[in-house]
Amino acid sequence: DARVTQTPRHKVTEMGQEVTMRCQPILGHNTVFWYRQTMMQGLELLAYFRNRAPLDDSGMPKDRFSAEMPDATLATLKIQPSEPRDSAVYFCASGLVRRASGSGIDTGELFFGEGSRLTVL
Amino acid sequence: EDKVVQSPLSLVVHEGDTVTLNCSYEVTNFRSLLWYKQEKKAPTFLFMLTSSGIEKKSGRLSSILDKKELFSILNITATQTGDSAVYLCAVNDKIIFGKGTRLHILP
């Protein structure tokens, strides 16, 4: 049963601490997205990767957030230092790029992980 | 700036009613429009639309796209309590989501 796996499912930490969230995309998928979901803002796109290369991270606060794909089976999202306003559910999603031109991509269906609920006190 | 706007933001109806959810968009480079349903956890895929005027159907759910007027609708007929969820629309160039429509079905 292919699915996107995220860890941790829940994380409570204190302001200033480093937080690392991990995502294992579906085997064979070549595109990975990171989203943040809050009641106020909905699902916000933070960053996405294609074939492990970052395509766009313009939605991510650069001073504290970083996203990487060290290999095809692992994507990470790191926050350092964390702040209370970072409290949210962070979703990872993967998909298969069918074609790409310019800066846009066409992934068709995205498959989401269960999310990592982060609370920063 | 690319944006996706959904309406209404929330909707409460009685079981058996028909509902129509709206999604309008402005994006630089449109490729497709996606509808997702989110209950308690992760969004799950409903439809992908790429061409105007072609209705996609799945049981009581259907959706259609108008690329000239830049919008899509999601219809749910004979609603059931299990349809209660947040319905999300996303537009593919950068997979930008709207804020969703929170639908609550009363028994």
Textual characterization of the structure:
The complex is a heterodimer of chains A (121) and B (107). Chain A is an all-beta fold. Chain A contains no helices and 13 strands. In chain A, the strands form three sheets. In chain A, strands 2, 4, 5, 6, 9, 12 and 13 form a seven-stranded mixed beta sheet that branches. A four-stranded antiparallel beta sheet of chain A has the order 1-3-8-7, with no helix packed on it. In chain A, strands 10-11 form a two-stranded antiparallel ribbon. The radius of gyration of chain A is 14 Å and the shape is globular. Chain B is mostly beta strands. Chain B has no helices and eleven strands. The A-B interface holds A 33, 35, 41-45, 48, 56, 91, 93, 102-115 and B 29, 31-32, 34, 41-45, 48, 88, 90, 92-100.
The count of β-strands of chain B is 11
**What's the end-to-end separation of chain A, in Å?**
36 Å
Separate helix tally of chain B: 0
User: Which parts of chain B are unreliable, with pLDDT below 50 for 5 consecutive residues or more?
Assistant: none
Mean of residue pLDDT values of chain B = 94
